[in-house]
Amino acid sequence: MNWSSLTSEELIATCVDTGDEAAWEQFVRRFRPVMAGTVLRTARRFGNPAPQLVDDLTQETYLKLCANGCRILREFKARSEESIFGWLKTVAFSSVFQV
User: Fold this and answer.
1) Given Cys at both, which of 23, 35, 53, 67 links 92, Cβ 3.0 to 4.6 Å?
2) What parts of the chain have a pLDDT lower than 50?
3) pTM of the entire structure?
4) Apex CA 97: angle with CA 93 and CA 98, to 5°?
């Protein structure tokens, strides 16, 4: 299957409903830059974070997304194709403050 051709909403549904490894790899490729960038910008407010800290906080974001059977991903309702990016920024931002 061509995962990159799926809309964000279709990709998320496939990830949480099937757990398909290739779909999750596409999820990471598509959404990691926005989440890691948000973590980095947020952490920089408190100094110059080490790359390992940014990686750890980004991983915390993934853990939050996957907790409770991917509950928050399942409950997300897109208002537009791009709304997922803003929502993921919010989740990543909150991950920095919950560590």
Assistant:
1) 35
2) none
3) 0.89
4) 110
CATH of the domain at 15: 1.10.1740.10
Helix axes 51-75, 21-43, angle to 10 degrees: 120
CB atoms near residue 74 (< 10 Å): 12
Domain total in the chain:
1
Q: Which domain holds residue 60?
A: 3-97
Q: Coil, strand or helix: which one is 37?
A: helix
To the nearest 10°, report the CA torsion of 80, 6, 84, 56: -170
pLDDT 10s digits, 70-89? 999 999 988 888 999 999 99
Look at residue 91 and give its three-state secondary structure.
Answer: helix
User: Looking up tokens 């973590």, which residue turns up?
Assistant: 39
The pLDDT assigned to 30 comes to: 97
